[in-house]
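Moderator note: this is an archived Q&A kept for reference. The question asked for a predicted structure of one protein chain; the sequence and the answer are reproduced below.
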Amino acid sequence: MSEGDTINRTAQVLRRTLGDAELVAARGGPGGVQLERVVGSRTSAVRSRGKHLLIDFTCGLTLHTHLGMKGSWHRYRPAERWHVPASNALAVLETSTAVAVCFGAPTVELLETRALPSHPQLAKLGPDLLDEEADIAAAVRRMRAPGLAKTSIAEALLDQRVVAGIGNVYRSELLARQRIDPFTPLGLVPEGVIRKILVDAFTLLRANVGARARVTVPDAPPGERWVYRRAGRPCRRCGAIILSATLGPLPRRVYWCPACQGTGRGSS
C-alpha cells in the first residue's frame, strides 16, 4: 500500500502535469466514473490527504482515488505510447499538452467537491502527517483513546482513522527507530513515547516527499532499512536476526529486532 509521502509526491507531479489547462478529453474505465463531465473545465487543485489523492475541477467536481497496493498514476505526452494497455485505464485526463492516467486503483470516484466533508472515508481520517501544520497533539489524543488501549501500537499506526499517512514501511521503521515492540498494546505505551513516534513520522514523511529513494536510516544510502523486509538478516545495531509476522485484520507483515525492540509478545 502506498505511503503518504508517495501520494503527496504523486499529487505534486500531477499538479505540474495538468496545471490549470482546460481538459480537452476525459474518461473513466468501462462502467466506471463518468469523467466526461469534467471536459471543458480546468484543474483547480491536486492534493493528498493521507493516502488519498484528490483532484478538484473548476466545475465543482472532485476525482478521488486511493491507490491501494497496486494502483498508480502515469503521465504521458499526447500521442505517446502508454506503458500499460489503455483497456486497463480507470481514469484518463487530457489537456492539449499532457495526459494523466490512473491504473489499478481500487477506489476511483467522481464526487461533488462540496460533499467531501461528509465522505464516509475522508471525513474519518485522522490528522494528516504530510500537512505542514499537522496536529500532532490531536493524533496523540486519538492514539490514547480508551477504545484502543488493547490494540497493538503497530496496528494503530496503520489505522488511517487514528493518524493518516503512515504505511507498512514506515510503521516497522518508526518502531525500530524508537526501539518499541510492535505488539505492545497502546495502553502500555507512555504518552511521551507515542508523541515521539508521531513527531518522527511527521519528520520522515515530509523529508522523503522529494526524495528519489526513501530514507529511514541516518548516514546510510537511500533505500536502506532498519528492519522492513530484512527478516532473517542481522540487525544493524546489535546483530540479532530480524523477525517478521503478520499482524492485524488486513493482515500486513511487520518486522522487528527481538533484541532491540522485544520478543514480539508485547513487551514495552
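Archived answer notes: Residues 4-123 form a domain with the N-terminal domain of MutM-like DNA repair proteins fold (CATH 3.20.190.10).
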